[in-house]
Design a protein that fits this description.
Blueprint: E1 2-10, H1 14-32, E2 35-40, H2 45-51, H3 57-65, E3 68-73, H4 88-98, E4 103-109, H5 122-125, E5 130-136, E6 146-151, E7 154-159, H6 165-180, E8 185-190, H7 196-209, E9 216-221, H8 222-231, E10 238-241, H9 243-255, E11 264-268, E12 275-278, H10 295-307, H11 312-327, E13 330-331, E14 341-342, H12 345-355
The chain binds 3-isopropylmalic acid and magnesium ion (MG).
Amino acid sequence: MNFHIAVIPGDGIGPEIMDQALLVLKEIGSIYHHEFRFSEVMMGGCAIDKKGEALPQEDLTICLKSDAVLLGAVGGEKWDHLPGDQRPERGLLRLRKELGSYANIRPAVLYKELKDACPLKSEIIGEGIDLCVVRELTGGIYFGEKGRRRGTMGEQAYDIEIYSETEIESIARTAFEVARKRNKKVTSIDKANVLESSRLWRSVMEKVAGEYDDVVLNHMYIDNAAMQLIKNPSQFDVIVTTNMFGDILSDEASMITGSIGILPSASLGEGKIGIYEPIHGSAPDIAGLDLANPIGMILSAAMMLRYSFDLESEAKSIENAVVNILGKNIRTRDIMGEGMHLVGTKEMGKLIADELR
Ligand code: IPM
Ligand code: MG
């Protein structure tokens, strides 16, 4: 089959991890006889430098015409001085919004091979960690009205957390559907003891839960959830939460699985064009040094095959290759442990690609 993929290497370690994901995809293409056509898209700081904006229209158009978008990472200190509406991250937020990718799915799995990289005690890890954060991605405080004004105590700044019923319904459905394919438990996370938007969130979650008798719903406050993730992570199956809380909790969830470098994500909407990106950032401090872990990026490509292209066996074979390589004690620096064999970004990518055969 034929697939057109918009490829956004982005900034920092983005390009080098993307190279490894493309290597793996090319290998999949040749093994399973698929043709992947890649169109490079500029987004982020590199686009600001070359074209003066974070997501130029022509680049957005390529994404809109593609079958799926594969994304490395954007941003870096170099652009930190820019005003909010001109930062590299703005490109990413616009892309998510334009593609209508409201559901960000971030599975967090602790591979038994990486138990030693997990900072939690083994009695806490128990049978292992396997949860999935479903984060609302195109609403909330990220997209609410924001601004500056003069107040009686000097300058004021505000960002409004705002959610509509239908937005909450959509993300709730995604979470319940995901839970149906897993252990049928959804924990909705909010701050309903303080925030009005959370009270609406909670009531809509309850309402949608009525359509899913086979799935159990419980609620938890965000502060408690941050604690429970470390105290007893195996109580979670699917976590559903707002844009901002999901951003924070998914980073926390990644740490207990060993490294933020290994977790992929899929951002889906009504259409089939998903955005697939590792959950980590652009890590400018290690960019170009062949130190980055390409696994999160490679597993994101696997998610793309599964969710946008319906290529389940191809996706599985990438995931198996990753597990096999970890099973052979091969590690990048972020997950390095005693007695393991240390490799760089390129070597890790190549070994995973070779493992596919
Ligand atoms: C993420 C990132 C982004 C976000 C940034 C880069 C805007 O942290 O995908 O988690 O906050 O959504
Ligand atoms: Mg984040």
